[in-house]
Write a structure and sequence with these properties.
The chain is an alpha/beta fold. The chain has seven helices and 14 strands. Helix content is 43%, strand content 15%.
């Protein structure tokens, strides 16, 4: 079997089961079979106990995702109904896969959580490492080009827009077990194409990071950070 394809199928089935109770009644056993198949291929033991622990987390994950969806609906004037968030928003889909893969990572499963995040990355253009710590609600608008690194901490009620990078200042293998990515406190908004780099960087609560800003130092609470520039407009002849 092609493990990458099976993980993609497993991820899609998980999301379907999470949001459709009728679908779950019919297909959850097949989804479990895919899970066991993947773990066997990865030579991971205790498959049944791992599945049981994972399944027991579904309600908690769904509760967080419902809050994420509500935040998207309340913050995006283009959203006409909350069903649109569940069915058509790539940022929400990326968050759903993140919350599932993060749970599996906490169960100490190797490889599979990262493969799930890469499936979501290829589907949505949003790269969220399953090791990141993300509170709720969390809203991603437009999604494309977002990168959230492994040791990022995002607290509650945070919104980010397309092209945002929450990354590291340096890329060295010796830094693997250190905090390399920023911390985003509660109630922060980060607009398009902003870049925030560094494990010691903290964006204080209630701050707004404007579009195209590059931040490499901590920002105090209640701050507004923008790029100072002027458009030069001339009359065409």
């Amino acid at each position: 079997m092609c493990l990458r394809d099976v993980v993609g199928d497993f991820t899609k089935e998980l999301v379907h089961c999470l949001f459709d109770s009728q679908y779950q009644d019919i297909h959850l056993e097949d989804t479990k079979h895919l899970f066991l198949k993947i773990l066997k291929k990865l030579a991971i033991q205790n498959e049944d106990s791992l599945w049981n622990a994972f399944e027991n987390s579904f309600q908690e994950i769904r509760t967080k995702l419902d809050l994420d969806a509500l935040a998207a609906f309340e913050n995006d004037p283009a959203a006409k109904c909350i069903e649109e968030i569940y069915l058509a928003y790539p940022g929400f889909y990326a968050i759903a896969v993140y919350r599932l893969s993060n749970c599996l990572l906490k169960l100490e499963l190797p490889i599979l959580p990262r493969m799930m995040s890469e499936f979501a990355h290829s589907s949505t253009g949003t790269d969220i490492h399953p090791g990141a710590e993300i509170g709720h609600p969390f809203f991603i608008d437009h999604a494309t080009g977002i990168v959230i690194g492994e040791t990022t901490i995002i607290k509650n009620n945070v919104s980010i827009y397309q092209g945002v990078t929450l990354g590291g200042m340096q890329v060295h293998k010796r830094l693997a077990k250190t905090k390399r990515h920023p911390t985003i406190e509660n109630n922060v908004v980060i607009y398009a194409n902003a870049t925030i780099l560094g494990g010691n960087v903290v964006i204080g609560e209630h701050s707004v990071i404007g579009a195209n800003v590059c931040v490499t130092e901590s920002i105090p609470p209640n701050s507004l950070v923008t790029v100072q520039s002027e458009n030069q407009i001339s009359q065409r002849k």
